[in-house]
What does this fold into?
Amino acid sequence: MSTTPHILITRPIGQHLPFIEQLQTMGLSVSHLPCLAIEPVADAGLQSDPAEQHDSVLFTSVNAVRQAHRQRPLPWTGLAVYAIGSATGQALQGYGQTLATLPDSPYDSESFLAQIGTCTPGSLLLVKGCGGRGVLAPGLRTLGWQVDSANVYRRRLPDIPEARVARIFEQQPPDLISITSNECLQNLMTLCANHLPRIRPLPLVVNSGRAAELARDLGFEQPPLIATPPGDQGQLQCIARWLQS
It folds into this structure.
């Protein structure tokens, strides 16, 4: 490890600066290689008031909150509003949105299904990105909910010149990599295809056990550090422990 520990963060452009500032406060040097690009979906079906057809709405990510707000400004009234995770809940509250209940740890699809399983089923709008795990809608329907989806954004592999990737590894190779999703990790492997022998020995900090399993499947040599809770708070705690060790 270099004298000043160096971390590579991989989150999308526009979602990296506050995290970088916190890492720098901890004494790390930081490089940013965005491994996801977020694009809005222009017609996501939010032209009419969601409360006209639904009694509940679930936002699945911070990106879902931001993109939905661009199309139909928050707060929304007349329906129960849920968030899949703590960061998503904070993003909603930042727009003045009242939540029906706070998210439950570990802040994933399964924990939300367990939480809402105690509620009387109704009609729910799922505000999300295109694709995803595909767990929530079937799970909700099994519980008796009528579910519609508004896909407000899509994820894609960013266009990153190889020269930019190479500079990261030539100037000061990272000692640790921060990963926020499985797709982000898979895209890292694609963008850094010419540098895999340097990447696979490095430790990762990830947000879930599923991401840790994927890292092992992709050939990473060290068991990833799993943020608890998932998100910035848990990642910063993991990184602090890594620094101490």
In short: The chain has a mean pLDDT of 92. The beta strands are 6-9, 29-32, 37-40, 56-59, 80-83, 123-129, 146-156, 176-178, 204-206, 225-226.
